[in-house]
Give the backbone structure.
Amino acid sequence: MEISYTRYRIYRECPWKYKLIFRDGRRIPMNPKSSFGLSLHRALETWLRSKDDSLDALHEALRSRWISDGYPDEGVEARWYAKAERALTRFREDELARRVRVIAIEKEFVWERGAHTVRGMIDRIDQAPDGTYELIDYKTGPGVPTTAQVSGDPQMRFYALGAKRALGLSAATLTMDCVAAGERVSVPYSPVEEEKLAAEIGAAADAIDAGKFEPDTAYCKRCDFRNDCAHSTERGGSAAA
């Protein structure tokens, strides 16, 4: 069993949703928000990997990596594209003002937990002037998390655990870079509950491997399949058998 953060998260939200996506092959359609987010991630990866830190290079990265899927018409897409240009222009200004060394972009990690493989991809790893490491995850939504939310964020902690187990890299800082909002939220990282998280990842992988896909209707209101899932409490206003 190979488990990523996305698989781990979806299984913990609802095992039945996990089955629909990863066993039955259901797909979540792209929408403006998801398409915009993926485009920004791809543009940032291309620009940061290049040797050209100019604004023209950044805009070219956006043009070359832009995804047009998920927009209802060209007008809506154009507005989202303009929003992406503004966000990346601001990102570049902040980036050039920071004194850090980029260690890795889209860095993959793989480690073993019992019979299972844990895999992930860290958006970015920086090294500060004092030699400490910072794990960065790009967020493309309009909101900005609190420091408490970043400190307890399961995805950030999943990545910090992976960096230590697979890369031998101990993170000192976790950062959510809210690209669209133009703000960064950083917190010191504490490894106190790493073993607990590792056990929870292993338990989820064990359950998936055993085919345990009982539905959890607590997530139905936010689920992409709420209108047609056989177990949805939101379909027709009542739970289906």
